[in-house]
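Researcher: Go.
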Amino acid sequence: MDFQQGLITTIHEYGLAKDPLSQLNQDLQKRPTAILIPCLFDEFSRPALQLIKATLKKLKNLNQLVIALAADNKNQVSKAKDFFGEMPFPVHVQWTNSPLVIELLKNQEKNGLDLLGTPGKGWAVWQGVGVATKRSEVVALFDADIRTFNSFYPARMLHPLLDKSNGISYVKAFYSRLSLENNALQGRATRLFVGPLLASLEQLVGNGAFIQYLQSFRYPLAGEFAFTRDLAMNLRIPCDWGLEIGLLSEVYKNVRISRIAQVDLGIFDHKHKEIGSKPNEGLQKMCAEILSSVLRGVMEHQAQTLTNSQLANLEVLYRRVGEDRVKQFSLDSSVNQLPYSRHEEELAVHTFGKLLRPAINTFLEYPVKQQLPSWSRVLDCEGKLQDELEKAGSTI
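Model: Structure:
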């Protein structure tokens, strides 16, 4: 049985909890809580969002559901509002790219604030946090494409935060990413890129505090997490595929490690991204941006960067560690009777390895990346912006 603890408090899944929904409904009475779902309109035609809605509809004491929606027109926003029209708690659909929202945020350039960002999950999360923290003390974020969503997910993620005596400010999910179709291992960006990358960096620059912190997370790229309002208000939010690593860096800066926990959600599946045929496509683009986020965090928290000789060494180390991991995952899959292609996994490692040098050179040339400013800073400039953003995002 896995009952080990480390730097980050780990909440294991022992399979003994029987009634997560009842417990969650009790816990939700302790602190006003919002669930935030960044969402493309395309998700409304897929089964995953139907499953999420059906599960959340059973909650009795949720303070608010915030849907941060990227939509093409008013008709799509109306359909989204109708979709969530019968929920037993308030639902706010925030049209993140509406003309009124864009005009409002662009107007903040007068205060020296760049709030438009790059359209995507990071920008949606930033807006959703602004809306959700108006009325709630705790915010949990889930993606809209989770095909295995069930009551255990919000119950297990929120429980550490809803009881203040736990002293927890941030909870990160981890899980076993398995395909619903054939049970094959998924999560290649985590298994075959981030894991070997951090292990290689540890050998190159030492086991510094930030690298040790990142390695303590079972699934650092998990897009499911929850935090208290005071922490959420002080996080700068990245606008690229480095969102999850970037947020971990922000959490590291803002709270003590003893106030962080990670929780096992069990089996998990959502949409899978292809590797892509070019460096600017699919998982290749994603991993290049993740690499920049990792290196930026090492610079910021350990004051370390890579020399030219270390870059060459990293390429060799990464390939070796990556191939070792493939062998380990092959055995893990074999014993668990899961389908596994060692050849395809090694091809993925080699593809990711080719990204290292060009991605690092680009990063070193432009190490500073746009991050949306924290809401505490924004409200210091424009105290009514939360109210104005909520109104602009709900107007159709």
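Model: The chain has 15 helices and ten strands.
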